[in-house]
């Protein structure tokens, strides 16, 4: 008999559930809590209700794993104020960042200035010649703009070059610069 992949997955889930049940029954339960009895009432028997068996106190967990976690937490108290926000950078680290100004080398400064001054509006890719509209100017490969030469036109971006610096202008996106 052959099983499908879905049947193997379902059998694996069933086996994992059974294994968890066995671990819970054999190792995690302390056995000090009696089983709870369920009660039901009907409209006519409301006066004859018998109070339920006393249950464990509200602050004591019913299951052994929860009880063990509670006991572990009580044994090692942690001050929530000291823990703070794990995603918040420390004040020392932020102070160091504020001290250091961002230093761009001259090439990066030129590229950053180009990115801030220019915007790619649209691109027209044809088999014979592609064109791009940058700041309302129609440009083709080889044309220059502010000392940069247009070297590539792609469907959603154009690449300008100035020496070893390439600048990528994207349509409706922030542009990026990289040195080669």
How would you summarize this macromolecular structure in one to three sentences?
The protein has helices at about 5-30, 65-75, 80-85, 90-100, 105-115; strands at about 120-125, 130-135, 135-140, 145, 150-155, 155-160, 165-170, 175-180. About 5% of the residues are buried. The protein has a domain at about 120-180.
Q: Would you kindly provide a written description of the structure presented here, covering whatever features stand out?
A:
This protein has a domain of about 60 residues. The chain contains 5 helices and 8 strands, in the order αααααββββββββ. It is elongated.
Question: Strands, helices and their partners?
Answer:
Layout: H1 5-28, H2 64-75, H3 80-83, H4 91-99, H5 106-117, E1 120-124, E2 131-134, E3 137-140, E4 144-145, E5 148-153, E6 157-162, E7 165-170, E8 176-179
Antiparallel strand pairs: 1-2, 2-3, 4-5, 5-6, 6-7, 7-8
Major sheet: 5 strands, antiparallel
Average of the residue pLDDT scores: 77
Radius of gyration: 35 Å
What is the structural class? Answer: alpha+beta
Helical stretch tally? 5
H-E order: HHHHHEEEEEEEE
Q: Reading side by side through the largest sheet, how are the strands ordered?
A: 4-5-6-7-8
Q: How many DSSP E strands?
A: 8
Ends distance? 61 Å
The percentage helix is 25-40%
Which consecutive residue ranges, at least 5 long each, have pLDDT under 50? none
Global geometry: elongated
Percent of residues in beta strands? 15-25%
